[in-house]
Write a structure and sequence with these properties.
Strand content of chain A: under 5%
Number of helices of chain A: 14
CATH class of the largest domain in chain A: Mainly Alpha
Oligomer: heterodimer
Number of strands of chain A: 0
Largest interface: A-B, 106 and 99 residues
Number of helices of chain B: 14
Number of strands of chain B: 2
Structural class of chain A: mainly alpha
Radius of gyration of chain A: 24 Å
CATH topology of chain B: MetI-like fold
Largest sheet of chain A: none
CATH class of chain B: Mainly Alpha
Distance between the termini of chain B: 40 Å
CATH topology of the largest domain in chain A: MetI-like fold
Helix content of chain B: 55-70%
Number of domains of chain B: 1
CATH architecture of the largest domain in chain A: Orthogonal Bundle
Chain lengths: 280, 310
């Protein structure tokens, strides 16, 4: 018994220590956004602001010329929400097709897609730019919304989930003369809702946080999403003369995914064990 | 499935008589949208990317076929800047991969083991380690720029150091690694924790009866039981680490003296940088990097899945 509590004590000490490393920098950054510039430049380490102020946020929001942060935030929102909705629709349709409909070479086609999608995407970046440019999408949200819709990983995930749903459900409906679309929309969709929520959460997070691609397809300051905007900010507010404004901007970018996590923690955590196939 | 024998009874999988589903193209309504997008944004770029790596191309005009010239230049022409950039980029990427991957596996594994000792609030701890990964690298890097700032940041205040973390080595690498581990352990942690909790208690009890110590139990029960998740995370983490880009761009800008400029940065800058685009050469570099990644993954998979099976 003694030994068990020993290992537990060590665990606690270790976990609390690690938690501090994980939490303090983040809190320090966020709290700094509520400090005045003179307080930030004051000597010594002070986690909490002495005088809380929203001035950094006001300054950031008022700068609409070279760093339109609200605009970037809205751009990111539009991109991520549109992309997520389209992914959920396309993925659920395709997964339904690959599990429930009978056609020649169905599984062969699916596994071919999966294998073909395995090659590292680094090769795709330059040609995808050319394709997006040909469609006239450079500096528009479509450059970030559309290319990712061809992904296969999410279809794999939803397909795995769908394979676990007994065929009897849709078979009996089919006997009664239900159409494929009826079965898809009225029977399958409600059943696969949990995995579609997982797909939506991950798609939104990935889209919101995408960094390399937006910096390639956007040079119009007004049109870019917030991740690319923050890179610009680093240059504009360089030399750390405006650390408070940098922190305010960064903090704003943290909000959407953090709020999403608070409400949908369970889905984030469960999904990973689902996708790696070690459930149970 | 289309056999004659089935003609008399309804197809088991659809519940329909086989004759009814003949030559229907209705499945295209479901898989079609994705298939088209996959062809345009999955297959076409791959083929086009391979093609342009054999051309001289500036992203705007027509690619001009040059055969293996780009590859020869990048791999063998010692006097070419492309050659030195590629090798420097791959070297720096490999430095990052070799150091970050073990950390991104061992640290979350230790945390998962600690969480597995039935501590209170385990899921709260887990969330705390998971949350940074939900944020974009450009946002968290700005925060870390402050934390490591020479004058304003707590790190130098606490350590009593006046190191400039962004412009000297090994500080710059250390900074990139700290941020990468802080940012990247969440997914692996969740996977390990799920895997550990699914190990049967019976094995540990049997080992207790045999008088096995905790270290023995760890290496003979725990590790073999979570072998698959570890292999999975090893391959995925390695691939992710090869794609490193945001951390050096945001934290060190590739410096000091290009010692943290990774392959992705060179590829991006050669194709989309401020100067004349050399997208053909950049594509050749991307191909080579892609091939390295494929070889490494296959190697990891083959070596590690064979090793312990005995």
């Amino acid at each position: 018994m003694k030994k068990v509590s020993m290992s537990k004590t060590i665990s606690y000490i270790f976990l609390v220590f690690m938690t501090l490393i994980w939490v303090v920098p983040l809190l320090f950054g966020v709290f700094t956004s509520f400090k005045s510039e003179t307080e930030i430049k004051g000597v010594g380490f002070q986690l909490l602001p002495v005088n809380w102020t929203l001035n950094q946020y006001i300054d950031v929001l008022e700068n609409t010329t070279n760093a339109p942060i609200i605009r970037w935030f809205i751009n990111s929102m539009l991109i991520s929400v549109t992309h997520t909705i389209l992914v959920v629709v396309i993925v659920s349709l395709a997964a339904y097709g690959y599990t429930r409909l009978q056609f020649k070479g169905r599984n062969l086609l699916f596994w071919t897609l999966l294998c073909a999608s395995m090659f590292p995407s680094v090769v795709n970046i330059i040609p995808t730019y050319k394709i997006v440019d040909t469609f006239g999408w450079v500096n528009t949200m479509w450059s970030c919304v559309v290319p990712g819709l061809g992904g296969v990983a999410h279809i794999f995930l939803v397909r795995q989930f769908m394979l676990g749903i007994p065929k009897e459900y849709d078979e009996s409906a089919k006997m009664d003369g239900a159409s494929d679309f009826y079965i898809y929309s009225r029977i399958i969709l409600p059943l696969i809702k949990p995995i579609l929520i997982v797909v939506a959460l991950f798609t939104f997070t990935g889209s919101w946080n995408d960094f390399l691609w937006p910096t390639i397809v956007f040079n119009d300051v007004e049109a870019m999403p917030i991740t690319a905007g923050l890179e610009l900010l680093k240059g504009i507010y360089g030399d750390y003369l405006f650390m408070g404004q940098l922190m305010a901007s960064a903090s704003l970018a943290l909000i959407p995914t953090f709020v999403m996590f608070l409400f949908a923690q369970k889905y984030f955590i469960e999904s990973l064990s689902l996708s790696s196939g070690i459930k149970g | 499935m289309e056999g004659i024998a089935e003609k008399h009874e309804p197809d088991k999988t659809t519940g329909l008589a086989p004759s009814k589903k003949k030559k229907s193209l209705s499945h295209l309504v479901y898989i079609g949208p994705h298939l088209i997008l996959f062809l345009i944004f999955g297959i076409l770029p791959l083929i086009y990317g391979i093609y342009v790596s054999f051309t001289r191309w500036d992203l705007v005009g027509q690619p001009e076929w040059v055969g293996l010239a780009n590859y020869k230049e990048v791999l063998f022409n010692q006097s070419s800047t492309f050659h030195s950039q590629f090798f420097n980029g791959v070297k720096n990427t490999l430095i990052f991969v070799v150091i970050s991957v073990p950390l991104l596996i061992i640290i979350p594994l230790i945390i998962a083991l600690a969480l597995n000792t039935k501590v209170k609030a385990a899921s709260l701890f887990q969330s705390i380690f998971y949350i940074p990964g939900l944020f974009s690298i450009s946002a968290v890097a700005l925060i870390w720029l402050l934390v490591f700032n020479k004058r304003l940041g707590p790190i130098n205040n606490i350590l009593g150091s006046d190191a400039n973390w962004f412009t000297s080595q090994p500080h710059a690498w250390l900074l990139i690694l700290v941020v990468s581990v802080w940012w990247g352990i969440g997914g692996n942690l969740v996977i390990y924790r799920a895997a550990l909790s699914s190990i049967s208690k019976d094995m540990f009890e049997a080992a207790d009866i045999d008088g096995a110590g905790s270290i023995k139990k760890f290496f003979y029960i725990t590790i073999p039981s979570i072998k698959f998740p570890i292999l999975y995370t090893l391959v995925m983490t390695t691939l992710a680490s090869f794609n490193i880009y945001g951390q050096p761009v945001m934290l060190t800008n590739g410096g000091p003296t290009e010692s943290t400029t990774v392959a992705m940065m060179y590829i991006r800058n050669l194709a989309f940088g401020s100067g004349q685009s050399v997208a053909g050469v950049a594509s050749a570099m991307a191909m080579l990097l892609g091939i390295i990644m494929v070889i490494v993954s296959i190697f990891q998979f083959v070596v590690l899945s064979k090793d312990d099976t005995k």
